[in-house]
Amino acid sequence: MTQRVALVTGAMGGIGTAICHKLADVGHKVVAAYHPEYDDATTWLREQAEAGYAFLAASGDVSDYDACREMVEAAEAAAGAPIDILVNNAGITRDKLFDRMDKRMWDAVIATNLSSVFNVTHHVARGMGERGWGRIVNLSSVNGVKGQAGQTNYSAAKAGILGFTKALAQEFAAKGVTVNAVAPGYVATKMVLAIRGDVLRGIVDSVPMKRLGRPEEIGAAVAYLVSEDAGFMTGATLNINGGLHYQ
Question: Which of 65, 154, 224, 246 is catalytic?
């Protein structure tokens, strides 16, 4: 297998870490992108090294276009090669029923979850096309597919990612670059497991498989989408939600 350089945004969260692991396991050089104000990169990198993973890292605010350019430049300098694989995984939530949602909550989620996908991808896609090979995977959500009360901002952003994915896939299909999305359901990350017990039990009961997804299952799907075996798949969405919703 040819070793590729992979950049993963939101790399230091539960799903992001699992994606980094799976990409490294199949032989790729992984650069973990993180927010310098909110992520403890030193601790995360040390923990990963103790687990046997020698990740590189690059910092930047994905909601800032110019910061993303600097982050991509730093990632490529650290890796010593251009980015071949981009996983747009960064995201936040600011949940509130619509009548109580303020403009700051809307703007923060749209900027971090949706505009970020443009901000990072815009700095890597052209190079992929010029080299004739690339893989872009965008993390959406089951709630971007079906909607969710209390998440008009999040659902709108994650639905927007699906439209972005389909359109960009058409633009780059003839250039050797695939663009796909993964829409996870409820996954057993620290954020989800911190939900109040009775609420979490209600979530699990709503899933036909009666369990949460595992971060490793999302990571494995991403690893497939960036592989040579997935070279004929583009513009697609993999729904991984335990049967919670069928598109």
Answer: 154
